[in-house]
Design a protein that fits this description.
The chain has 133 residues and is an alpha/beta fold. It has one domain. Helices cover 40% and strands 23% of the residues. The protein has four helices and four strands, in the order H-E-H-E-H-E-H-E. The strands form two sheets. A two-stranded parallel ribbon has the order 1-2. Helix 2 links the parallel strand 1 and strand 2. The radius of gyration is 15 Å and the shape is globular. It starts with 5 loop residues before the first helix and ends with a strand.
């Protein structure tokens, strides 16, 4: 998650329906400020008031504005640390009306799905969270 928006909110809501152990991963470089102040106000306080376990925010640092490599390293390390568990990776993705509109949007989600299928094993489950434009 790069910022708190409607598509991220939908993914967090779905994650909380699936499990009480949800980790929200954000990749930041040295110049990013993150969304900790918004997270506290928009997510942490409302969820904790309802007695639901609050998702843990994991910040993965990247020095070169690369997102996929540090994110893949974190997911594969999490998989190695939990050998008896399945990991569900929730990937919010934009769904457009026309096929050619896909070229207008960043394709990081598609690349991440492909990398998880190739490098991960059968314990990693990829879940698409669609957001229709």
């Amino acid at each position: 998650m790069a910022r708190w928006d409607k598509i991220g909110e939908k993914a967090v809501r779905f994650g909380l329906l699936m499990s009480d152990q949800v980790k929200v991963v954000t990749v930041q470089n040295d110049t990013d400020t993150g969304f900790e102040h918004i997270w506290e106000e928009m997510v942490h306080l409302p969820i904790s008031q309802h007695g639901i376990p609050v998702p843990e925010v994991i910040t993965v640092h990247s020095t070169f504005r690369t997102i996929l490599s540090p994110l893949m390293d974190y997911i594969l390390e999490l998989e190695r640390q939990n050998p008896g568990r399945k990991l569900a990776v929730l990937l919010p993705e934009l769904v457009v009306r026309h096929w050619w509109e896909n070229f207008l949007h960043n394709q990081r989600v598609q690349l991440l799905k492909l990398l998880l299928l190739l490098k991960g094993n059968q314990r990693i489950v990829v879940v698409n969270i669609p957001w229709y434009l």
